[in-house]
Amino acid sequence: MTPRRRVGRKSTTREPIIQEPEQFEPEATRRTAGVTESARANRGWWDRNADEYQIEHGTFLGDDRFVWCPEGLDEVEAELLGRPDDLKGKDILEIGAGAAQCSRWLACQGARPVALDLSHRQLQHALRIGGSVPLVQADAAVLPFRDASFDLACSAYGALPFVADPVLVLREVHRVLRPGGRFVFSVTHPIRWAFPDEPGPEGLSVSASYFDRTPYVEQDDEGRAVYVEHHRTLGDRVRDITASGFRLVDLVEPEWPAWNTSEWGGWSPLRGGLIPGTAIFVCERG
């Protein structure tokens, strides 16, 4: 799971984890960023920051849990992919798998998951944790699988927030799913783009237009993007889903639970009790 969380560290070894400070402070801006620039920037960002991400959030995510979002919604309770008993024997693709925590949980239910991520370093953490889940490094917009290879697909904050053209990803997922297959993905709730990305009171006042689709970009001194995140309105997401051949069967907006006292970037109990932080789209292939 990879909700917006910008840190500035660089990893140099696989294990043990050793990190060095970044040599520059990126400039945050809003500007256009295309498919190629976004993919290059985000691959590099997650390779550099995977270590710190796993250190900071690994305990919350666990080694073999399926957590959909910073709110802490667990697939054990949500059953968005189906009942655990129904997952046995199913071929499942996890997109933007990170350290493959969700795939590991799926394997424990008797499913046959494949964990895919753009970042080589994230997948090294999957190797560090262990397990027998197949790992694939690839771009979600060009999936290296045959048509109709999977029964289900899932993505917990993986890929879709970071791609310039989400329809490319959705069409690829549609292609590799079997008829009747389900794709469930979570992203930052679109309304959050109108608010500052802050967990405290300063994150409760509207500061930008919800309808401004200009990407958020962090760039180096030469103007090269080192991190890109793309905004789609709720309507945009629905249109992207239907344009890709899916049928939207549910839209889940998890409420912040009383037990969760954690802050995760701009997610917090304060904000979570007032405005939604996550949107989960449940789609089915015809």
UniProtKB/TrEMBL annotation:
It comes from the Bacteria. Keywords: Methyltransferase, Transferase. Residues 1-11 have a biased composition (Basic residues). One of its GO terms (biological process) is methylation. Residues 93-185 form the Methyltransferase type domain. InterPro entries: Methyltransf_11, Methyltransf_Superfamily, SAM-dependent_MTases_sf. SUPFAM superfamilies: S-adenosyl-L-methionine-dependent methyltransferases (SSF53335). Residues 1-39 are annotated as: Disordered. This is Class I SAM-dependent methyltransferase. It comes from Streptomyces lannensis.
